Amino acid sequence: MAVTGLKVSRRAVLSRAGALVVSFALAPSLAAAAARSSGEAADRSLPGSLRSTPLLDSWLRIDAGGITVFTGKAELGQGIKTALIQVAAEELAVQPQAITLVTADTARTPDEGYTAGSLSMEDSGTAIMNAAAQAREIMIALASERLHQPRRDLTAGQGAVIAPGGRRIAYADLVSDRTLHVRAEPRSPLGNPAHRRVMGRSWPRVDIPAKVFGERAFVQDLRLAGMVHARVVRPPSYGARLRSVESAPILRLPGVLHVVRNGSYLAVVARREYQAVVAMEALSRAARWEESANLPQQSRLFADFLEWPSREVPVATRGRPPDLRRLHAATMLEAEYRRGYLMHGSIGPSCAVAHFDQGALTVWTQTQGVFPLRRALAELIGLPESRVRCIQVEGAGCYGHNGADDAAADAALIAEQVPGRPVRVQWMRADEHKWEPYGSAMLARVRGALDEAGRIVWWEYRVWSNTHSTRPGGAGELMPAWYLERPLSPPAPRPLPLPAGGGDRNALPLYRIPSLKVDYRFVPRMPLRVSALRSLGAHLNVFAIESFMDELARAARLDPVEFRLRHLDDPRAVAVIRAAAERFGWREYRRLAGGGKGFAFARYKNLAAYLAIAVEVSVDHGGPMPRVLRVVAAVDSGEAVNPDGIRNQIEGGIIQALSWTLLESVRFDRTRITSRDWASYPILRFSAAPHSVEVVVLNRPGQPFLGTGEAAQGPAAAALANAVADATGLRLRDLPLSGDRIKGAMRS
Amino acid sequence: MIALILNGRSVEVDDEPRTPLLYVLRDTLELNGAKFGCGLGQCGACTVLVDGAPVFSCVVPVGDLAGRRITTVEGLGTRQRPGALQQAFIEEQAAQCGYCTAGMILRAQALLERNASPTDEQIRSALEPNLCRCGTHIRIVRAVRRAARERQRAAADGVSRLGGAG
Ligand code: FES
Ligand code: FES
């Protein structure tokens, strides 16, 4: 499997007129468009993304060239390509190598919105699995007519339908242009989960070889004929306005082709990449900005959060509050948990390539959503959507809405100024650090009461946070548009709806609690730019809930694992908890000086994967931070298509969450973001990585796919804090749990 | 013109001497292996070997490198003849997004050249300058350990499985 996006781009370059690309690319998208425009509303009876894109040939084409599968989802380093190929191969009864997968491209693939929310397997995996099964049955039916054999005697295998006695007809000989141009049925003849050949196996990731051999793999690696390089001179702070800039000397620098100025938007285009960097630095020195000190004082941020106007979003109410005066005082606890702004911190700053040619715009982008981005770019540039094509090409891991869409907007704005020439825009490190939308700061308050038997009888929870998505949307959500001479502004932020939620994602505990009240205080005012960061509000909510569960367990004098199990009914929740505890050796664990163990559990979004985790730490009182020694997690993602892919994502999620939780918080002064590089925003390095991370996958063949990629963030944070509490007796409720805070807490 | 020895072959480049090596590799020589991550010597995504030692190519001016031996990940092997580390990274599936991977492989290559059987602690401390935001650390350490074993086995068999330079 080559990187499909790159193959396409190559073709785009070769055909300078662009006509070839359009014609060869249109077939499946026309099918999808036809289905959409024929007034058929989303058909809720269909599985996964077949709901919005019901024609089989939008997902699957079979011809002499082989089998091509189309997904509207994007590879983000999560291994989605490999898993989707496995699903298609399983139901089509072929080897994975027989399948070519095309990922998110507005000219070729179904519109599946954003690759986000750990929904790719649920949406696209489910659609492809069902489409493939239905295609297989169609081919068996066609073969049955041709061979005059009853269907039940025919089997599919190795790319053909096979009759008893060995007669076979290849799929490509059965399928003509229109064969798969049919609507999906609500029910599919899915393969028997007990006889999987390809699903459930740890097939090696198809995208890894290109990355270890230095082949073209990333949008950063695109080199189109005649391509030029651009850099943007970003304002020094959010509210800054460009007063003046002398651009004539910049235009005399070697290789410089253009200086783009539009209001406070400033960029430079040069022939060679480093020439663009040098020119950007010179242009930056030449620019005079007007700034204002309109950020809050960081040390007062949480007090401000509580004071600023907020909107109450009820999450859940159950039972009636008990008469608290009659409960024993020792059984009533309350606590407050907080996290600052967190950065996605992609290792590769955002990049995009745009080509504006004959009134049409093509953008190669690492976006998570080619279709929404196309709408936003069309609005930004003032083109009809039909004249804009967005092709997703991998970037470095993004973990949510980072600078990717903004870089695409930069490329589009600049390409419009140099028509006919592909323009590559690469953000610098400080651009990414200062301008990506962060994960919102959050604060949660919880109160809980226990009865004499150690059961939770009352739970009251309230969480404050900004929105967790400012994705485009429209052009107003593209940050470069805010600085144009005729600036666009983003629409008013909104909370994301439940049940998945945003700031209230996972605010409702899964535990059996007879009376509770959970609500979300949505804070519209956003001093720092924020949007979706892996797991949204679930990181802080699960950190708070699972820390508090340990505090309650301690008050009830019960083992934290036992305490959780006593409050759970869902057998799948119980199973992951038992699996993690057993594999970790929870009961047998003997504490050494400075050592401690911590546990946590959550079901992501209360809808997706179940995950339980145990962490062992050692806290050296003189040392800078707790050392994570050993981590064991157990995960139930429903049917596991690629168990090692699941392990890889969970391991990564755990380590990333440990970094957030131990070290991270975006810093700012009254005017500027001051976290501008890896020195001023440090993240976990090898010396702080756990000695071991083990992930047990509980496979559930035949069960629906449950999103996995974000499941570890909250539980890992809480298990770490719980282990630190176990080791030191100190309950740390403010993130990050850096060494300074531990030392501070020990002093007080 | 500046003459370099790149992956065992002589090349000449016309970049200005102060141009960081990274831009010469990516833009002039059209290699993909070395990645831009920070341009500040903080992340290691751009790591390559100069005379066998790992350097941040984003901060080394190409003018300082005349006649020096430069190794990028492309020089360690190919799909047909993978280097021991490349093979081990595939076998351990030691990548998520894979953007940090080439830099990790080169830093590990330098380590294995001076220490054929490093401990986990030695691997971690050698890789300390390189960041991985995806959290692939454990697999990366495992892959380096596997490559060390394979190289030793190959050395014992008298067969070099290390393609290219370095
Ligand atoms: S890009 Fe060179 S160290 Fe980060
Ligand atoms: S694998 Fe993504 S940064 Fe390391």
Specify Rg of chain B, calculated over alpha carbons: 15 Å
In the CATH classification, which architecture of the largest domain in chain B applies?
Orthogonal Bundle
CATH homologous superfamily label of the largest domain in chain A: Aldehyde oxidase/xanthine dehydrogenase, molybdopterin binding domain
Major sheet summary line of chain B: 5 strands, mixed
Structural domain count of chain B = 2
Descriptive tags:
heterodimer, A: Aldehyde Oxidoreductase, domain 4, five-stranded mixed beta sheet, 18 helices, 30% helix, B: 166 residues, alpha+beta, Ubiquitin-like (UB roll), DNA polymerase, domain 1, 2 domains, 36% helix, 13% strand, binds FE2/S2 (inorganic) cluster
Task: Write a concise synopsis of the structure shown.
The complex is a heterodimer of chains A (748) and B (166). Chain A has 18 helices and 24 strands.
Fold blueprint:
The complex is a heterodimer of chains A (748) and B (166).
Chain A: H1 4-14, H2 19-37, E1 60-63, E2 66-70, H3 80-92, E3 99-102, H4 120-147, E4 155-157, E5 160-162, E6 168-170, H5 171-174, H6 208-212, E7 228-233, E8 241-244, H7 248-251, E9 256-262, E10 265-270, H8 273-286, E11 288-290, H9 301-307, E12 311-318, E13 332-339, E14 351-357, E15 360-365, H10 370-381, E16 388-392, H11 404-417, E17 423-426, H12 429-435, E18 442-450, E19 456-465, E20 516-522, H13 538-555, H14 560-566, H15 571-584, E21 595-603, E22 610-618, E23 627-636, H16 643-663, E24 692-697, H17 713-728, H18 739-747
Parallel strand pairs in A: 2-3, 7-17, 15-16, 19-20, 23-24
Antiparallel strand pairs in A: 1-2, 4-5, 5-6, 7-10, 8-11, 9-10, 12-20, 13-18, 14-15, 14-17, 18-19, 21-22, 22-23
Chain B: E1 2-6, E2 9-13, H1 21-28, E3 47-50, E4 53-56, E5 69-71, H2 84-91, H3 101-114, H4 120-127, H5 137-157
Bound molecules: FE2/S2 (inorganic) cluster (2 copies).
